[in-house]
């Protein structure tokens, strides 16, 4: 997560009438900015197993995919391709379903 910027991005997304779904590390539950997302109207949060780490964020919008490496100075890679964007959507939808199962 990118801290305050991430919250700003999420709020802008919600203000535009879009929904926001987040698949996050279980350890993120200990962070206030992540706990706040659950009650926000238009957001849903699910978590992967403890110990599973993500060193990059993925954002999909239109025909674009942004992969943001989480470092002291974040680095973003943007791919503009409809097939790549759909592939990421399908994969993240799969993760969404899996993280919603009991015991996961």
Number of distinct beta strands: 5
How many helix segments? 3
What fraction of residues sit in β-strands? 25-35%
Helix content: 25-40%
- Mean pLDDT score, rounded? 81
Strand order within the widest beta sheet: 3-4-5
Major sheet size, sense and barrel closure: 3 strands, antiparallel
* Weakly predicted, low-confidence segments: none
- Please give the radius of gyration in angstroms: 14 Å
Structural category: alpha+beta
Shape annotation: globular
How far apart are the termini? 21 Å
Following the backbone from N to C, one meets helices and strands in this order, namely: HEHEEEEH
Total domains: 1
What is the secondary structure topology, with strand pairs?
Layout: H1 4-15, E1 20-24, H2 32-37, E2 43-47, E3 56-61, E4 64-69, E5 75-80, H3 82-99
């Amino acid at each position: 997560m990118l801290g305050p910027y991430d919250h700003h991005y999420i709020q802008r997304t919600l203000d535009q009438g879009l929904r926001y779904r987040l698949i996050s590390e279980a350890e993120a539950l200990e962070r206030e900015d992540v706990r706040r997302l659950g009650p926000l109207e238009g957001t849903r949060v699910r978590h992967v197993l403890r110990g599973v780490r993500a060193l990059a964020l993925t954002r999909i919008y239109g025909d674009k995919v942004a992969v943001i490496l989480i470092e002291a100075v974040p680095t973003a890679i943007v791919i503009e391709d409809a097939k790549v964007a759909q592939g990421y959507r399908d994969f993240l939808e799969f993760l969404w379903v899996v993280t919603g199962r009991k015991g996961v």
